[in-house]
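Exercise 3.2. Students should predict the tertiary structure of the chain below and write it as structure tokens, then compare their answer with the key that follows.

Predict this chain's 3D structure.
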Amino acid sequence: MKTAITLVFLLSLIAYSSTVTVNLPVDQFTACNLSATSTGIVPQISGAYPGDKEGSPSLPEFPLTVALDPGDKAASVTSRALWETIAQDIVIRPLSAPTPLSLAAEIAPLTTYSAIYSVDNFWPSESVQLTGTGFKGGIPQAELLVSPLRWNPVTGELQKLVSLEISIETEPHTERPFSIGEKSGDFKRMLIVTDSSLESIFEQLAQRRTDQGILTEVTTMDVVYATSSGRDDAEKLRNFVKDYYTVNGLDYLLLGGDTDLVPFRYAFAMVCEGGIHPREDSLPCDLYFSDLDGTWDDNMNDIFGEVEDDVDLHPDIFVGRAAVDDFDEAQIFVDNIAAYEDCSHERPRQDFSF
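Answer key:
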């Protein structure tokens, strides 16, 4: 019986799968700048970024998201591309390893990845890569990397895209974005999270925002710690925000205090091997409180934001931080917002120092 049920389930998945096809405008790739360096040519295209694999050719990659039907995720991607040659007999510079700028004098010599540089084929072999499925506003998005250029290391021929058709095969998504609460109107909603010692100050800002049509509530970290669970303070705050979002709906979050008052999350950035600081591979990241899908730590190793953690990086709410340390700084922050917003149009150049 279990085998029969499994077979029916697999057949239903096959029947449910569908294909999304898009034609990518390639006009944005027209302006390609070939910068000459002592170690080779570096092609540059506006809006594109170099890859991250040490020793591979420094060719630009262009991030792209494609909206999918609710309940779907991207399973695979294929493409049909047309290319034209833009240069001959050139050598593309290999990518270096990520290195902190403070260690620039100690950068190791560039090395090439022989499996690429010794082969008489165009690289990359595929014009589009599927990197995952994320959510924007609860709508699933296929996350893609487009390679607008390809290069043959043996012949030195460089080509660029002149047309690209992308086909995305989809399948049912077993995960769902957390649901948003129903709003009782078209108003926006804002939450301010602060330390209890600053609550009365940020209540002034909350009243101002409410008067402006943004329904704003202030809560304290004491409430967060008492009502929300998590492995550390940052996760407790994020779970509190997710619950608030689910119940009430939420557009804006203000973290009312510097990091000793309102927690933050270190998120993984890269492996730099500089040996200059215990947390050199991570950065303080308030996007953790903005992109609310998933846990940011799928593999549960307490390193947040790794590639393996499947973080989609799409913000679900707007997040800001008032980096104030005490009552006086908070009062100055709130007063300066009021002074700026109430500034007379006859005095447009009046200065306000935050």
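Discussion points: The domain at 20-172 is CATH 2.60.40.3800 (Immunoglobulin-like). Residues 209 and 216 are 6 Å apart (CA to CA).
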